[in-house]
Amino acid sequence: MLWRRREEVRRRRPPHPFAAARTERNVVDAQVRFLVADQGKARAFAQASGISQADIPGFPRGLTPVVLRADTRVTNHGYRSGQATF
To answer: Which residues are 84's β-sheet partners?
Structure first.
């Protein structure tokens, strides 16, 4: 699991769109709904993931959750003005 200090969690804003999800299944379903609701974000996500937009609903369901036991470098992809940022 990834841990943050309590002060960082309290300062975090806006709330993450998946924060209310209680189970792994709810998180995946929320991610899929979030992505398919906006064609631009769906296109950017598919491009960054190397999949087609039609494959988005099945892609997160095929991933396996892991617990990171060491520091791990993460590449953050963003979204700005209708385009994915790398």
So the answer is: 79
What does the alpha-carbon distance between residue 55 and residue 71 come to, in Å, rounded to a whole number? Answer: 30
pLDDT digits (tens, 9 = 90+) for 4-13: 455 554 555 5
Dump the DSSP string for 24-72: HHHHHHHHHHHHHT-HHHHHHHHHHHTS-GGGTTTTGGG-------S--
Identify residue 44 by its one-letter amino acid code: A
Which one, of 16, 84, 18, 75, lies nearest residue 45 by Cα?
Answer: 84
Beta-bridge partner residues of 79: 84
**Could you give the CA distance from residue 66 to residue 72 in angstroms, rounded to a whole number?**
12
> What phi and psi values does residue 14 have, to the nearest 5 degrees?
-70, 170
φ/ψ (deg, to 5) at 71: -55, 135
Residue 63 has pLDDT above 80, yes or no: yes
